[in-house]
Amino acid sequence: MMSRAEQGFTSEDALHRIAEALERLSPPAAPAPDVSAAQAFVWHVSPDHLQPVPQVNRVALDLLVGIGRARDTLLANSLQFAKGLPANNALLWGARGMGKSSLVKAVHARVLELEPDSALKLVEIQREDLPSIARLMGHLRRSSARFILFCDDLSFSHDDQHYKSLKAVLDGGVEGRPDNVVLYATSNRRHLMPRDMIENERSSAISPSEAVEEKVSLSDRFGLWLGFHPCGQDEYLAMIEGYCAAYGLRIAADRLRAEAIEWQATRGSRSGRVAWQFFTDLAGREGVRL
């Protein structure tokens, strides 16, 4: 039998192979992302990276009707943050289709208009990627830019443990939330947890009150709670009229009103989303490009 030396296999080769195996087990830290590539990003895992978004899908802030208080509060908070002043995390909760996620994106655009030198970035993270949020914070902490971390449609099921990752980042842990990061989340629920999840914790825990408090305390870590409620008919029609004016679609007022009311009746609800869906249909029928 030939020896390893005779086969051309040296101790140096063995060390090289061991080093390669160790690198596969524990790869080097990913380089800091280039946040100058865009104004908005989406966070992805496996591998961790920020994907630039060249053009954000958003509605102009002035077209968001019926949410004036939430709009003004979130804009003021975002301007403070962009200027390097203290700002709160924000939870936008309430009725579906009333512009919660649209408001976050529209406010980001307005801040860039008002503070063009602020280097304010919007970073979207999916709910299922919340366990990686600490790694994302580590990347953002090393940047000189400022970041609105945006999690849309945030909620948790009865067996979901992702909320613990989010709770630790909001204001817990040794490092805490970086000064250059603020978190905006949207949800249909004010307390993020379904009622049956809270009741289950109350019935099965050794200390029911403490278990429920842990669930509810997640919402308490957001300094701003902005409520969104179903709109009335006047607000619904005002939204559509605003879209028509913005895109130059001319139509008789009585016809617009009649068709808009018929549309919402077939949907069984009124909201900003329903108003936009009607306007999209109307613009298509009238030959107006959006």
Automatic annotation (TrEMBL):
Superkingdom as given in the UniProt entry: Bacteria
Gene3D superfamilies for the chain: P-loop containing nucleotide triphosphate hydrolases
One Pfam match: DUF815
Protein name: Uncharacterized protein
